[in-house]
Design brief:
By secondary structure, this protein is an alpha/beta fold. The chain has helices at about 10-25, 40-55, 70-80, 95-100, 100-120, 155-175, 195-205, 225-240, 275-285, 310-315, 325-340; strands at about 1-5, 25-30, 60-65, 85, 125-130, 180-185, 185-190, 210-215, 220, 225, 260-265, 270-275, 290-295. The longest helix has 21 residues, at about 100-120. It is globular.
């Protein structure tokens, strides 16, 4: 197939594009490669994708443009006939949304509108897009289920992602565009983002600096290894969303519809205490961390826990990477990448 992967220079997008190339698909990547974090890391990911395409004898075309640029998006869709669209580009970061909400409007709302319109006008067979577990917000019911309410986000990032889900439903209803929204839980692993905990902790431990531990370490997170996540994204993209024949307007299910629309959690269903995560990192680095215990940050939620029964039932997704193995793979990549000259 020919598949568009937006955010292909980003963390999850890179891994999805790489797995698609390795299995024999042709990939068109789309990314603005901005400086939200070190662009050299993004450029290194793109180099790996080009090398992977050469080894697999597959096509990889990269479009360096902003999704908020409607003309650039339309031009990309006019030049290619996509069998699938996997939309992973977004302005990420919970805390950054407190500082620069306009970046989220441009990327997550305007950019997503341009993708929806392009998919509509080219009759794209299936749009799969990234949402987030942050949409559950003030919901304290555990584990988080797609069938429960997600209408009390605690930060603007989550609000834009919940808006994406509602926008997608309107296009699924009006234009019968099949859409699948994936609520990612905490993704970690090689080639990760420098603003994420594992990357930050590793750098500080190696530098002998204290690591900031918010909520005094009482967090639990449904950590999911990136290779598992990428595999799950591709499984969902392969299985086109369809209307739910049991859906009722009298008792509407928030995760399905009488339109070709669905929302799925994609996580590990195995929450890990933050202290256990740090301990796994200490073992892999063979160093003890100095902890700077801090209160809960504004916009953060104390715990995440994914109910993954729906994604298991619908596409047979079952993550298999234990936390220590995943952390060890990250550390091995981190040490190798930065010893080879990557910037920090």
């Amino acid at each position: 197939m020919k598949i568009l992967v937006t955010g292909s220079a980003g963390f999850v997008g890179f891994h999805v594009a790489k797995q698609l190339l390795e299995r024999g698909d042709n990939v068109v990547g789309f990314d603005v490669v901005n400086d939200y974090y070190d662009p050299s890391l993004k450029e290194a990911r793109l180099t790996v994708l080009e090398e992977t395409a050469q080894r697999a004898d597959r096509g990889f075309v990269f479009v360096r443009a902003n999704l908020a640029d409607r003309a650039a998006v339309d031009s990309c869709f006019a030049a290619h006939d996509f069998d699938r669209v996997i939309h992973l580009a977004a302005q990420a970061g919970v805390r950054y949304s407190l500082e620069n909400p306009h970046a989220y409007v441009e990327s997550n709302l305007v950019g997503f509108t341009n993708i929806l319109e392009a998919c509509r006008h080219t009759s794209t067979p299936h749009l799969t897009y990234a949402s987030t577990s942050s949409v559950y917000g003030a919901n304290t019911k555990r584990p988080f289920s797609e069938h429960d309410t997600a209408d009390h986000p605690l930060q603007f990032y989550a609000a834009t992602k919940r808006a994406n889900e509602l926008m997608a439903h309107s296009y699924s209803h009006l234009y019968r565009l099949p859409t699948t929204g994936l609520r990612f839980f905490t993704v970690y692993g090689p080639w990760g983002r420098p603003d994420m905990a594992l990357f930050l902790f590793t750098r500080k431990i190696l530098a002998g600096e204290p690591i900031p531990v918010f909520n005094r370490g009482q967090h639990t997170r449904d950590f999911t290894y990136v290779d598992d996540i990428a595999h799950g994204v591709i499984l969902c993209s392969d299985h086109i969303a369809a209307p739910d024949p049991a859906w009722s307007s009298d008792r509407p299910d928030l995760a399905t519809s009488d339109a070709p629309f669905r929302i799925l959690n994609i996580g590990n269903n195995s929450p890990v205490k933050l202290f256990d995560y740090i301990e796994a990192l200490e073992e892999c680095l063979d160093r003890k961390a100095e902890l700077d215990l801090l209160p809960l940050q504004k916009g953060d939620v104390p715990d995440t826990y994914a109910d993954v029964s729906e994604i298991e039932r619908q596409v047979d997704f079952r993550p298999s990477t234990p936390i220590h193995e995943g952390v060890e793979a990250f550390v091995k990549w981190y040490l190798g990448f930065y010893r080879a000259g990557g910037n920090q």
